[in-house]
Amino acid sequence: MTEQQKPSEPTEATNQATNDANTDTVELSSEQTIIAKLEDELAKAQSQLAEQHELMLRIKADAENARRRASQDVEKAHKFALEKFAGDLLPVADNLERALNFINREDEAFKGIIEGVELTMKSFLDTVAKFGVVQIDPAGQPFNPEQHQAMSIQPSNDVPPNTVTFVMQKGYELNGRLLRPAMVGVSKAAE
């Protein structure tokens, strides 16, 4: 062979082409690595964003619940602030009722006293009603264990079983909450 190169020996151009191909492969490999890293970082950032968004929604819900509970507590405090005071006034109503029950209504001498005590009783009940105190007088109604306290049970043919036959002491509610149950006598079926 002449001065020409042997076919098995690479030429300088072939070597350059091979080097360029290897460089392109390295560059492609490097770019793919960077893209993979960026995609991984993006996925992590999106996951973190989702977690932060969920946390923000929970915090917002907790704050709303706390605000609602505080509002309900304030409302209850306003509604039932008078509970102890109203409970302490109940004996006054009881005493006025007892006075009316024990006065001889047939005697003309007591007519003015009866009228005065009745007006005082009415005025008292009207005044406490303005603040949510309501009297429970269950005479003749079915027995309700949530509002009545049975003091005696008597057989009766006149009324159905579990009916309040008499009231020993009236009960009271404050804005729908029981202050004191009515003490009652309850009927049962006659034997």
TrEMBL record:
Function, as annotated: Participates actively in the response to hyperosmotic and heat shock by preventing the aggregation of stress-denatured proteins, in association with DnaK and GrpE. It is the nucleotide exchange factor for DnaK and may function as a thermosensor. Unfolded proteins bind initially to DnaJ; upon interaction with the DnaJ-bound protein, DnaK hydrolyzes its bound ATP, resulting in the formation of a stable complex. GrpE releases ADP from DnaK; ATP binding to DnaK triggers the release of the substrate protein, thus completing the reaction cycle.
A Pfam family this protein belongs to? GrpE
Subcellular location field: Cytoplasm
Q: Which PROSITE patterns match?
A: GRPE (PS01071)
Origin organism is Alishewanella maricola
Q: Where is the signal peptide?
A: none
Q: Which CDD domains match?
A: GrpE
Per its record, how is this protein called by name? Protein GrpE
Which intervals of the chain form a coiled coil? 28-55
Q: Which InterPro entries match?
A: GrpE, GrpE_CC, GrpE_head
Region (Disordered) location: 1-26
Its assembly, as annotated, is: Homodimer.
Q: Which family does it belong to?
A: Belongs to the GrpE family.
What keyword terms does UniProt attach to this protein?
Chaperone, Coiled coil, Cytoplasm, Stress response
What are the Low complexity biased-composition ranges? 11-25
